[in-house]
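Handout, section 4.2: multi-component inputs.
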Amino acid sequence: MSMRRTTIKDVAEAARVGVATVSRVLSGGSASPETRERVLTVAAQLDYRPSALGRNLRQQRSGGIGLLLPDITDTFYGRLADGVLACARSAGEPVILGTTGDDEEREAELIGMLVEQGVDRVIAVPSGDGEIWAPTLRAGLTMVFAHRSSGGRDEVPAVLADDRAGVRTAIDYLTGLGHRRIAYLGGPGQSQRLTAFRQALGPLVDEELIVLARGTRDSAYAAAAGLFQHRPDLTAVLAGGNLLGEAAVLAARELDVRVPRDMSLVMFDDVPWAELCSPPLTVIAQPARDIGYRAAELVLRAGGRRPRGVLLPTELIVRGSCGPRGSSRSPR
Amino acid sequence: MSMRRTTIKDVAEAARVGVATVSRVLSGGSASPETRERVLTVAAQLDYRPSALGRNLRQQRSGGIGLLLPDITDTFYGRLADGVLACARSAGEPVILGTTGDDEEREAELIGMLVEQGVDRVIAVPSGDGEIWAPTLRAGLTMVFAHRSSGGRDEVPAVLADDRAGVRTAIDYLTGLGHRRIAYLGGPGQSQRLTAFRQALGPLVDEELIVLARGTRDSAYAAAAGLFQHRPDLTAVLAGGNLLGEAAVLAARELDVRVPRDMSLVMFDDVPWAELCSPPLTVIAQPARDIGYRAAELVLRAGGRRPRGVLLPTELIVRGSCGPRGSSRSPR
DNA sequence: CATGCTCATGGAAACGATTCCATCATGTTT
DNA sequence: AAACATGATGGAATCGTTTCCATGAGCATG
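Output:
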């Protein structure tokens, strides 16, 4: 019924050469022009496609790139994945996707699965402080972090958006509008942004206005609603991600906080619906797709040498969700 | 520096048995209780993880599931992918992701890449009319279609949302509000929805009110804007996907068409931002994640027998984007 | 007691590619 | 002309696993 795939041996026999020669011709080794020609012709005729299985076993590594994301449902990571896929496709490499849910344990599991599969190049948005990665690195994996860097020093190159600058311009913008009580709604694993926030705000920082949520919608909503209820005196919010921004808009509407009259809102990450909101959201755009693309480039071209990380620019896109400081809301 | 991975041979030697026995023990074959015990202990001690590479070559297939989506950036497909990943993870199977951009050629390329990798189980949202799939099927792949089915008869099981019922309830809802001139904004590869639209509308159908866009944002916007400009007499629109819905909202705002006063809008697919819109969008919710999960179940448990497809329910979620038929807009 | 059956077991053969190494032909240098 | 360098070529080993098959032990049945 189903005939056997054509193997390198078939090609060798049909072209009356040895298998070694076929392999050399196909992988760019040296061969005389005439045999090269003959082998190529025969291979084309037989529609020969080398089996990745055999090759992988021999060279002890499956091609392919592992991609570990917190949540593929989040459009930010969707765009990031899109960038990785684009680059991988142009290199002909398959991409194995796994989602961690920002859980270190699941992340470790996934890494185990990847090495089991022989995947030796991984792009990850690291969940924890990156201690899990130490053994992985020692095992000889080529790693690149995207969007977040591992907690401590950087043994692993990272492709990041310039959070520091993004936060700074956003805060400058808000303080320029007269805001003083500015809150920060943060998600998991973004210590960078948080410290940038603290730095940018300087003496104005109010620790009670800093709220951290877990990666879920519910958690984000709870954080936003809690913040708005407890601190009616705040006049501006910086949401550290599109999920947080969504939660902020929702909570504001629910609690009758009008944007931007009662409260200004800046959201990290420009998503399509930011423009559809009313008012349209002022955002800090991040080049999510580029982050993925660059990370893939790095992990693919890592010829033994460990490349330096990359910092990509962010952009403040002013729409309609920020206004001058109004009278602060009265407690309900 | 980097020590060799521990192989089955190491385990065999350490446990003083043959490699065959180790393999049997680890894959659930028969063995005497004592040897089983010994092998398991030793394997655990040496932290032995069987290499997928060797296994794959031997059994001529890499485990793993191929997942082919039009666009991972679209949250619908993001949710679908999430479902697939969830199911695959519980089965310990890796998922190889590829995006087709609704392009048959790219789709064919990706399939080629997958078979080269030895992947023999694929979940796909088919782009074209499915002719590409014939040779693939003959090659012995296990295929499941998700979200769309192949054009003709169904040789391939498909997991679908009940588009027919979804369209019908939406149209009933709109006609119930008094609407007669109802437009359809469609995307690629959804002939199902379109025919359902025609059927549900019956004699009211106006072919000029049916506009099809390609899969991009620009194309969707152009389609929506063109429709609104040319036909100011329409009073309701059914958008056949979240991209189309987004375009409709944008175009309506741009052209000063007020929703729902001037025009009612129902969108296929419930996305988080539908609630953030003003007015909040009335949508036909589809169980995207379930579609993915079920598709993965099907493709995993396909024990030779070809399972029947699955039809999952949709739900009309009424929010604020539909109203009774008002006076139709005057041409500009 | 002999025969046959079941079961655990290990050696060895696949699987399909890459790559080391030996061989042989050809051309170049002394 | 002999020695040597160069380059093309094919045989064979290798990667790590599964699985076929033969072997031998233990046990029951005739």
